[in-house]
Each structure stands twice: as C-alpha cells, then as structure tokens.
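Reopening this ticket.

The earlier resolution said the output was attached, but the attachment link was broken on my side. Pasting everything inline this time so it's all in one place.
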Amino acid sequence: MSNAAFLHIHPDNPQQRKILEAVEILRKGGIVIYPTDTIYGIGCDIHNTRAVERVCQIKGVKPDKVNLSFICSDLTHISDYARIDTPTYKVMKKALPGPFTFVLDASSRVPKYVGNKKTVGIRVPDNNIALQLVRELGNPILSTSVHDDDEVLEYSTDPELIYEKYKNLVDAVIDGGPGKNIASTVVDVTNDFEVLREGAGNIEQFL
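Inline output:
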C-alpha cells in the first residue's frame, strides 16, 4: 500500500476541493484520519463493511468489541440510527455540536457489522472539517479515536506525527491544525444521562 495522502485543510474555511477529495476516498472504502473538536479520529463510511474491518484491525479489536461512534452533521438523521425520546433529544440539541458522545439504543438501521450491540454512540463535533465531510458523504462516518497506546491512552495531537504513524495503514490524513488531547465526554442516555467517561464536555450544564 502506498503512503496515505496528506491533506492540509483550513479548519475555519475548509477548501471544498480537498473536502471532496477526502470524501471520494471514503466512498471508495478508504480510511481517513480527520480532526474533531476534541481528538483526531479514524473514520470510514459506515456502510462499507470492509473499511470497518480495516479500522478494527488498526485498533487491534474485533468489530463487536470496539467502541465505534457515528459522526453526524446534525440531529436530523439521528432517528435513522438510534431510538430517542423527546427529553433526551432536547438535551442533545442544546449540547450539540459539542464534545460529547451520546450512547443511545440502536435502531434496526445500524449496520450489522457491530455484532449484536444494542447501543450506538452518536457524535456531532463542533468542527467544520468533520461536519463538511459528513455532509458531502451523505451519511455518518464511523469513527474511533487516534491514540498512541491503550495502556497510557496518550492522544496524538500533531497531524504530522499522526501521519508518520498511520501513513501505511490509512488512505488519507487531514491536517486541520493541532488536535486536543482530551477526548469527548461519553454520556449513556439509555440509563438517565450516566457519564461513562469524563472528557472535554460538561453535560450538567445542559440537564
């Protein structure tokens, strides 16, 4: 496999041509590392089973064991992939876009590659590049975080270092500026807004 493309994309005003280049890679079953409002993510088209398997190989886990999130551009299509009640929806509408992953009951439209998982993580990051990628792709991106080592859980923040590490494993790395090293706050809303992981966001202010 040849080295991945390294795409410099402006974080505030993403160049459409480069966004479309990354989207074309996703459409063809490629894997793209991209910025979010927290840490960099490894993403692929949720409907491409082979690409999902590759993401899981990179993480060294089986598809039914990995914590995968769906990156969405807004809450419009959330009911396609998750079951959500009105009070929960209202909280999510206030908190998103933002540094949260909401764990919801999965709908029957969630692709079967995630095994018998009953839940799905939903992210709407406050990042123009990530949101544009999803809008142009036309469906969510399946995503997991970039980090150095499971034991230490050190998150890589420098796109050039990320590229050096992953250039033979993925198809493109987007340089959207330095990432952050604090992950999103994970909130399980199947169990009354239980915080599973403290991260960059404070859910209390939205409850």
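Reporter confirms the inline version is readable. Residues 16-27 form the longest helix (12 residues). The helical segments are 16-27, 49-59, 78-81, 86-95, 128-137, 159-166.
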